[in-house]
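Morning run. Coffee first, then this:
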Amino acid sequence: MIVLDPEFARLLAPQARSLEGLMALDGDALRDVEGRRTFRIELGGRGFYVKQHRGVGWQHIAKSLSGLRAPVLGARSEWRALTRLAKLGIAAPRPVAFAEDGRNPAARRSVLVMTEIAPAVSLEDVALGRVPPPGSAERRRLIAEVAGIARRLHGAGINHRDLYLCHVLMPVDADGRRTGPLALIDLHRAQMRKAVPARWLVKDLSALIFSAAPLTLSQADRLRFVAAYEGRPWRHVPAERRRLWAAADAKAARLTRRLGGPATGDTAAG
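And here it is:
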């Protein structure tokens, strides 16, 4: 199977418009783990990210399943998630190429090419003070926007599984001024169902709480986030939902004790 965006296909040599050709693309590796390699390329003066999956083997699959974790078997999940996000109006990299072959899940090869969101800073950069802090009004807008992204994502039956602030990008110009909506990246572990089970809601929400810790959010900020996510003030949130938020807080506290600081990438995956 191969899907190619016509505009992107025109940037490729004819021999590269196949699974073999896409798997032969190369660049400086940003990540190279467990049969998955991620790197950046430039074509036609534009940046793209490439994720090549070469199969993880039965040992990795068994290890993941024994730990009650769904293994990442290829690029299809991220391709489907990005396609769904576009329909939901959630900003994210645009998939321009996807290809896969093989029925054996342990040896299946696949590749995904996505547009680059640049220039941009991650909200982890904001939280850790790597960029100038936002003013109070912008801070409130960011809180509401992150909550809105999570709400729409979960409402559509999608959970990210790595919903840390390092995976939320804010497009900026050369002077660091914001130029567009927040964008969600790194959805290779995303899951899609009719509804997200409570366990996975807690995981996503706890990841946001954990990675936002350096911001030292006030109680008002926290309640503002919950209200934006729930679509109602905290005093109107039913007991069942309050228990979910308590579980997310508890899991975030466990992550802090275990890791001691904000997660990046797959650091806190589990």
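The mean pLDDT is 90. Good start to the day.
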